Amino acid sequence: DIKTTAVRKGDEYVINGGKMWITSGTQADWMCLLANTNEGPPHQNKSLICLPMNLPGIHIARKIDKLGMRSSDTAQIFFEDVRVPCKNLIGEEGKGFTYQMLQFQEERLWAVATALTPLETIIQETIDYTRQREVFGQPVLHNQTVHFRLAELATELELLRSLLHRAVALYVEGNDVTKFASMAKLKAGRLTREVTDSCLQFWGGMGFTSEVLVSRFYRDLRLISIGGGTDETMLSIICKYMEILPRK
């Protein structure tokens, strides 16, 4: 629920409020700010504003210490009577929520696409490691539970890739792919957790160190089930498009 307000005064907006979980917030020159510009219905009272980060009244409260994605800074930011020209409005006033929802289709498809290569890499590195790591006189990979599991994970990855390709093809043709994008994002979040957890287990004690890629991806890719809309949000959207979501 967005609390930040941008009140029009003359040819300026006066902004008050705060933002949490702002990616690159400690170093960005500009912010695309979603704020309430009137007191109308929640889906019609928000606007997008291009906000320079060097304006008086913008306070970067802290850089958030995170579990993963530690090379990407995330900030908490407050606004106190920040003045920005009305010409910095993006598109039409009151259409901010709609613009944001349209953007989410691309963001969620992007999240799926960015997960594919890391998952391929984790599976291949795990194959290489378990092939050379021996337990009781034979490579760990020779255990059926290990090579069958890796085969299952590789199959799941290809299914996710196919869904992404279908969704992108439909999107390029101008279709509304909200349902498929949400399905792909849901599956990507869950599959990254499944692949990284299963593969880390096959690395044994080494997997519990910070010296190997699988432990980093175990931390970093956990964000996919949260950022850009949680798994639960994806399920609600899918249910809405299936017309099985209970009405309030």
UniProtKB/TrEMBL annotation:
Domain Acyl-CoA dehydrogenase/oxidase C-terminal: 94-240
Reaction catalysed by this enzyme: oxidized [electron-transfer flavoprotein] + hexadecanoyl-CoA + H(+) = (2E)-hexadecenoyl-CoA + reduced [electron-transfer flavoprotein]; octanoyl-CoA + oxidized [electron-transfer flavoprotein] + H(+) = (2E)-octenoyl-CoA + reduced [electron-transfer flavoprotein]; tetradecanoyl-CoA + oxidized [electron-transfer flavoprotein] + H(+) = (2E)-tetradecenoyl-CoA + reduced [electron-transfer flavoprotein]; dodecanoyl-CoA + oxidized [electron-transfer flavoprotein] + H(+) = (2E)-dodecenoyl-CoA + reduced [electron-transfer flavoprotein]
Alphabetical UniProt keywords: FAD, Fatty acid metabolism, Flavoprotein, Lipid metabolism, Oxidoreductase, Transit peptide
A GO cellular component annotation in the UniProt record: cytoplasm
Biological processes annotated in GO: fatty acid beta-oxidation using acyl-CoA dehydrogenase
GO molecular function: acyl-CoA dehydrogenase activity; flavin adenine dinucleotide binding
Cofactors: FAD
InterPro entries, alphabetized: Acyl-CoA_dehydrogenase, Acyl-CoA_DH_CS, Acyl-CoA_Oxase/DH_mid-dom, Acyl-CoA_Oxase/DH_mid-dom_sf, AcylCo_DH-like_C, AcylCo_DH/oxidase_C, AcylCoA_DH/oxidase_NM_dom_sf
Pathway connected to this protein: Lipid metabolism; mitochondrial fatty acid beta-oxidation
Domain called Acyl-CoA oxidase/dehydrogenase middle: residue spans: 2-82
Keyword Transit peptide appears in the UniProt entry: yes
Pfam families reported in the protein's UniProt record: Acyl-CoA_dh_1 (PF00441), Acyl-CoA_dh_M (PF02770)
The UniProt record lists the keyword Protein transport: no
Family under the similarity heading: Belongs to the acyl-CoA dehydrogenase family.
Protein name (record): IVD dehydrogenase
Organism: Mystacornis crossleyi
